[in-house]
L-lactate dehydrogenase (Ligilactobacillus ruminis), 305 residues
Amino acid sequence: MRKFAVIGLGHVGATVAYTLVTKGLADELVLIDSNDDKCMAEQYDLLDSLGRLDTHTKIKVQDYSELKDADIIITAFGNIAALSLDGDRFGEFNVNTAAAADVGPKIKESGFNGVIVNISNPCDVIATLLQKYTGLPKNQVFGTGTFLDTARMQRAVGQALNQDPKNVTGYVMGEHGESQFTAWSTVRVAGHPIAEVAKENNLDLEDLDKQARRGGWLVFSGKRYTCYAIATCAIKLALAVLSDAHLACPASVYLEKYGCYVGYPAVIGAEGVVSVNYTELPAEEEEKLQSSAEFIAKKVKSLED
């Protein structure tokens, strides 16, 4: 029995729920939102689709006790109105830190012992708080983090070279936010180091890094929210847990060195974060990672002061 829960049914959470149901990925789905009417509306919209699907999903709502035997919780709470076009993901800091303080203890009280995949922004800070409030082992809580930003980097490089983005490998690391950076030392295009490819094709790597970092705002400026890419990332990570895939990818994972969650290469499987894939970086990139992680840790610490 594959049982998922989605907490927070804004554009992203609703897209996650829709995908889980229409692709037949969930046998049971629990929907939870602070707005009862919104939650019931999403439930019935999905229930009305079942008569035209080849699969069936039991859909339950607003019951934290149902989380006890869930395999995976995807947290997507937030308030998109808190963001501005020239801001960053810390626009949701106050509302989502409060939401994590409300949701986390309720998850703990339910007896849930599965894996939490966090989407809510600022992703790294909220993942850190959810682990604290739920009391779950650090490997059982992680965030989408720079998994999405890496996809945006793959898109930018792929567009520049007329390549399928899947032919571009490597990592964006650090905060899921303004201090993130593309670790170009890890990037390959069809197996070739990006430094060689950039020289041959006259690519501006600094500009491509900026495109990855600002990719979400490009979408947000046009439709005032993002949903498809991030929902796809969250579901891929959740399925890696469900199938014990041992998927090597970047995600927001706990790094003992910094005492917080940060976007970094990891291996995702049935236990959540099976291992952190420690990667040797050039000094310049290592400094960027440290600076980004320290920024996240400072934000977390500000909540304790």
